Amino acid sequence: MSQAQPQRATIIAVLVRPKASDDWENLRTAVISLSDEDPVMTVAEKLSAGHIVIGGVNELHLNIICDSLEREFKVPLDVEPPQVLYWETITRHSEAEGKYIRQLGGQGHYAHVKLSLDPGDQGSGYQFSNETSEDAVPHRFIESIQAGIGETMRAGVGSANEIVDIKAVLRHGSYHLQDSNEIAFKAAAVMAFTDAFREASPVTLEPFMSVEISIQEDFVGMLLADLNLRRACVKEMDAHPSSVVIHAEAPLNELIGYYSHLRMITQGKASSDIQFLRYEPFADGSSGSDDMGVPANNPRYPIGKSASAIANPESVDD
Known about the structure:
By secondary structure, this protein is α+β, with helices and mostly antiparallel strands. Helices cover 24% and strands 33% of the residues. A hairpin with a 2-residue loop joins strand 7 (94-104) and strand 8 (107-119). The chain is flat and about 75 Å long. Mean pLDDT is 86; it is low at 1-7, 285-294 and 297-318.
């Protein structure tokens, strides 16, 4: 069985670009420098949109990065609103097969793949195993099958959301001595995975955050009402001589802009700490969703590429 791929720390991203076109190289250099110091910061260049994508662990993390780019590296930025990165996974076992049979340029292409999918533990990533024999699917095609599944998971099925925590097993297949090749088996794997994923009762996952707020007692009622509107669940309240500390959990999407909002409604008399907690199934698909009610990242942010990739922007795009 292949090793599970660890889940990344990036759960939110922002698009930035320099205000002056002459500052592009300065921005690229600055981003690479910052990412060398920050192991959880991710970057990529989205050429078609003319932006650099910066990913981080929360909105404050992104604000600090953007502030550093402007203050320390003297690169004035245009910054778009942050985008929460939803994921998808499956909830039950499924099986499907894909057959790729084509005649292209006088050459035949043939591949047949049968896959089963099962949910993995949260954080387990993508796990792949092969239960076929050499007679069914030669070993030289296994890597292409595995790659086809992995690429489909990163791109998403029916939405722009990355798919995580799946156990994929190659159950069976067939090949043709002359017409089978790596490209055909990769395509057949994509077909099989797509059909199996749709049959496995997929769900969308959203990042939930732990929220700790220290506030004067006079503001507690107003703050609790505000948290309720943000789909937050208050877990505990600790009373201190000069303040009340509220411990809550809330979806990250409801906390965009919360640092500024909290200062405004408490007249600057509150402090907060927001940290990633876990992923949970998305509870409301009414906003920003596709036709199946699945929250979709639009545009799709190419998160997870190393900072060094933007040093050669011709090689990085959507």
